[in-house]
From TrEMBL:
Pfam families: ABC_tran, TOBE_2. This is 2-aminoethylphosphonate ABC transporter ATP-binding protein. GO terms for molecular function: ABC-type transporter activity; ATP binding; ATP hydrolysis activity. PROSITE patterns: ABC_TRANSPORTER_1, ABC_TRANSPORTER_2. Residues 6-236 form the ABC transporter domain. Gene3D superfamilies: P-loop containing nucleotide triphosphate hydrolases. One of its GO terms (cellular component) is ATP-binding cassette (ABC) transporter complex. Keywords: ATP-binding, Cell inner membrane, Cell membrane, Membrane, Nucleotide-binding, Translocase, Transport.
Length: 345
């Protein structure tokens, strides 16, 4: 593989007694779209700010194109940034907001005009260039913020929860727009998000963080299908943990299975165990069932299991609350946590 475009080496960061980042290591390649994903307070914004030069690491290095940039001020790093709170100047038009960063550099007025028009066109807002931020929707303001970041042809685009202030529909549309633009321009991008769906749909790779540490790095498929810890399995998607209840067994789950991988059939058919349907939830494209079984695991007792089935299966089995079904967990779909936690670098 080519040399990494950005290398994050042994980054630690403390705020007083709070450890915000512990030994973070990461390599990002040219044109990659990488998401930093994790719950609130796990350190993702701090990491992005250290990459941008807005925050100093307590130790560790950041290399861009092989060169140590740890000591460079933000203005010298050639990173474009977009924040959750658009951060547009309210007294400047969309055009002026985008042009702002170009002024004071060695561009002629004509060059600036061309560049601004070009990026406004890229974000599909040429028609709104003379509007003030207050005259633009949230989604439009965020597209102006994006235009302002890319007009400087940055080496890296850093996005800090850029979509979280927007309503659901606009958010989904902008996901596609940002990704498409990023691919078209080939800008290496790092985005902070706590939204797993956003990370799964947009990223080439996801860096899952928890408690100031990197838990797993992998493609969306890898972190979904082969989570290396119960935390990752639970944070990304829905999961059923299967506990070994035999005497002396460790309390941590050793196996897990995704709700969509469990097979159900009519009572008495197949090799499965019986389960009672405790709840049926309509989720639009599928149904989410809450089932209760008696003997799936060693040790017995009741267990609740979440199962997702298509409308087709649900109709076919004529599923009803308190009905009995047969349930099977395909062996090949079991996720195991018995091995040492591995990090896919
Ligand atoms: N300037 C600061 N001073 C003191 N503590 C800070 C500062 N910035 C962040 N922290 C602490 O560092 C930890 C990581 O914060 P950070 O903002 O990076 O998390 P995050 O994952 O981005 O969370 P969120 O999704 O809520 O923004 C938290 O415990 C936070 O309280």
């Amino acid at each position: 593989m080519n040399k990494p475009h950005l290398t994050i080496q042994g980054i630690n960061k403390s705020f007083g007694t709070v450890a915000a980042l512990k030994d973070v290591n990461l390599e990002i390649h040219k044109n990659e779209f990488v998401c930093l994903l994790g719950p609130s307070g796990c350190g993702k914004t701090t990491l992005l700010r250290i990459i941008a030069g807005l925050e100093k690491a307590s130790s560790g290095r950041i290399l861009a194109g092989g060169k140590d940039i740890s000591m460079l001020p933000p203005a010298k790093r050639n990173f474009g940034m977009v924040f959750q709170s658009y951060a547009l100047f309210p007294n400047l038009t969309a055009y002026q907001n985008v042009a702002y960063g170009l002024q004071g550099k060695s561009f002629s007025k004509k060059d600036i005009g061309e560049k601004v028009q070009h990026v406004l066109k890229l974000v599909d807002l040429s028609h709104a260039s003379s509007r003030y931020p207050s005259q633009l929707s949230g989604g439009q303001q965020q597209r102006i913020a994006l235009a302002r970041a890319i007009v400087l042809s940055p080496d890296f685009l850093l996005l800090d929860e850029p979509l979280s202030a927007l309503d659901a529909k606009v958010r989904v549309r902008l996901r596609h727009e940002i990704r498409e633009l990023q691919e078209r321009l080939g800008i290496t991008t790092i985005m902070v998000t706590h939204d797993q769906e956003e990370a799964l749909t947009m990223s080439d790779r996801i860096v899952v963080m928890n408690n100031a540490e990197v838990q797993q790095i992998g493609t969306p498929q890898e972190v979904y299908e082969q989570p290396n810890s119960p935390f990752v399995a639970d944070f990304i998607g829905s999961i059923n943990f299967l506990h070994d209840k035999s005497e002396g067994a460790a309390p941590t789950p050793r196996w897990a299975v995704r709700p969509e991988h469990i097979r159900i059939s009519a009572e008495g058919t197949g090799e499965g165990v019986s389960a009672i349907v405790k709840n049926i939830e309509f989720r639009g494209s599928f149904y989410r069932l809450l089932l209760e079984t008696e003997s799936v695991e060693a040790g017995g007792g009741h267990d609740s299991i979440t199962v997702d089935v298509s409308a087709h299966v649900s109709n076919h089995l004529q599923l009803m609350k308190n009905g009995i079904v047969s349930l099977e967990v395909p062996k090949e779909k079991l996720i195991s946590f018995t091995s040492e936690a591995r990090i896919h670098a």
